[in-house]
């Protein structure tokens, strides 16, 4: 006989099975496929496939390409993105081809993630949820980029949807495999994020004694996370050591209120570290405050319709996914909250449909007009921020390419080594290895750099207001825009530059 928490969960499931319509009455999947196709095309049209690789993209992509030396791979990173881009990056240098590859995959992934919710919500709600998530500037911008957060988001959406479908129909089948695949995808991309997202699912599975759900979740997390754990022992000295190093790189995890940092990043800042400066215009941040209100309204609607669990679970998972990035880290990036946005999209879409269908009489046209105006304004803001973000990132990546061209004219060509200011991106665009003697990307020493300079060309970059490293102060200096470039005497030269080799 079931009692306690198990009885409550079992009773809730029975009520929701009676209240919720079956998959056959929820419409087909063609609207979801159309949405995914529009999302893919929007990425290619608005984010420009020719957009050069960003800093983090370079780190992930350089691990699998044969055309560039691998950049330093720090402790928090996981190899999932590198494997995702490998089918193209392993044989082609074309950024356009890589962007198209990722745009197509991201559209397909969104389609599959939304399909996992069939039978739980009407198709119109799923399409609206997908459209909301896909129209966010952060989703459009990062969909075709070699970054992990979008993939954690769609993995979370798939895992939660399949978890709820399996609870509604516990017979073995697709939902179990979808649950495991979603968990594996998250852990493959960012193991710690995967754990945060799945905490509510694991608790529910344990409380309800749903062994198969628990096995699917744990199995998926292990399948995606074991490579990261194995690398912890081979490259960082152990799991505890890697976690400690990952915390150090991220500024020390603990109680850090980063809500204001996330707000500052909504204006299009890819990384807000240190997160200073004025807040974006309130019009830009308004949606961020409306989002949780709509999600709560969606929960109220679900409670009244006696289908609480299918709305409460994604809300709980969105909350745990957002917690570390709002309260445990000392900086912000808008992409960090993508999993939370994807999960919140379901109850938000349900609330929007309630707002346009529930009022009766003269209030219904007013409610529909208000929602339509709100969505139009929201879309305008998102596209404006997206255009600004794309332009700014295009300019910065062109600067890296321009600096690489100048270095080539100074004779710095592969094989070579770049150290100092922005060494990783400039080194990649130049075709060189990159090295750092301090900071989060420390991977070499001054002595190793000098020994390398005896074999290949080495250049040390100093940014505006920076101090040149001691090992390079005697090297010839060149001015490239705001940068000072010190190029070591050519290996094997007789010192005709008149400058002694620093030792």
Automatic annotation (TrEMBL):
Region spans: Disordered: 1-27
TM region positions: 126-143, 150-168, 188-207, 214-230, 286-305, 312-333
Keyword field contains Mitochondrion: no
Keywords, in A-Z order: Membrane, Transmembrane, Transmembrane helix
KW Transmembrane helix (keyword) present: yes
Superkingdom of origin organism: Bacteria
Organism: Streptomyces heliomycini
Signal peptide start and end residues: none
Name of the protein in its database record: Integral membrane protein
């Amino acid at each position: 006989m079931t009692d306690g928490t198990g009885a409550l969960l079992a009773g809730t499931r029975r009520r929701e099975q009676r209240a919720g319509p079956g998959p056959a009455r929820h419409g087909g999947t063609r609207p979801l496929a159309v949405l995914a196709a529009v999302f893919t095309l929007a990425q290619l049209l608005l984010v420009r496939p020719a957009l050069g690789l960003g800093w983090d993209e370079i780190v992930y992509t350089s691990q699998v390409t044969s055309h560039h030396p691998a950049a330093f791979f720090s402790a928090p990173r996981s190899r999932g993105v590198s494997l995702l881009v490998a089918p193209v990056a392993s044989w082609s240098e074309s950024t356009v081809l890589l962007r198209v590859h990722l745009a197509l995959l991201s559209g397909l992934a969104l389609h599959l993630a939304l399909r996992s919710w069939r039978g739980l919500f009407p198709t119109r709600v799923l399409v609206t949820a997908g459209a909301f998530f896909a129209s966010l500037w952060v989703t459009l911008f990062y969909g075709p980029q070699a970054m992990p957060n979008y993939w954690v988001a769609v993995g979370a959406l798939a895992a939660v949807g399949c978890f709820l479908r399996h609870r509604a129909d516990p017979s073995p089948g697709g939902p179990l495999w979808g649950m495991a695949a979603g968990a594996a995808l998250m852990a493959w991309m960012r193991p710690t994020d995967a754990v945060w997202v799945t905490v509510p699912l694991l608790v529910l599975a344990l409380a309800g004694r749903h062994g198969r759900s628990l096995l699917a979740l744990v199995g998926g997390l292990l399948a995606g996370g074991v490579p990261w754990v194995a690398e912890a022992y081979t490259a960082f000295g152990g799991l505890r050591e890697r976690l400690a190093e990952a915390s150090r790189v991220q500024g020390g995890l603990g109680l850090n209120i980063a809500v204001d940092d996330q707000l500052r990043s909504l204006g299009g800042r890819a990384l807000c570290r240190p997160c200073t400066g004025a807040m974006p215009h309130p019009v830009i941040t308004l949606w961020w405050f409306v989002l949780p209100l709509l999600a709560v309204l969606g929960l109220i609607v679900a409670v009244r319709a006696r289908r609480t669990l299918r709305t409460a679970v994604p809300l709980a998972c969105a909350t745990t996914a957002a917690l570390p990035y709002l309260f445990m880290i000392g900086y912000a990036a808008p992409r960090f909250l993508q999993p939370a946005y994807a999960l919140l999209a379901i109850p938000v879409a349900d609330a929007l449909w309630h707002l346009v269908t529930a009022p009766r009489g003269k209030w219904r046209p007013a409610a529909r007009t208000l929602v339509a105006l709100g969505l139009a304004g929201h879309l305008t803001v998102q596209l404006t921020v997206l255009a600004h973000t794309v332009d700014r990132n295009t300019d910065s990546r062109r600067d890296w390419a321009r600096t690489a061209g100048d270095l080539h004219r100074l004779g710095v060509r592969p094989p070579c080594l770049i150290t100092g200011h922005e060494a990783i991106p400039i080194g990649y665009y130049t075709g060189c290895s990159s090295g750092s003697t301090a900071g989060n990307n420390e991977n070499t020493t001054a002595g190793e750099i000098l020994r390398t300079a005896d074999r290949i060309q080495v250049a040390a970059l100093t940014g505006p207001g920076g101090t040149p490293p001691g090992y390079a102060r005697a090297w010839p200096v060149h001015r490239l825009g705001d940068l000072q470039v010190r190029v070591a005497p050519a290996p094997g030269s007789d010192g005709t530059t008149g400058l002694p080799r620093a030792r």
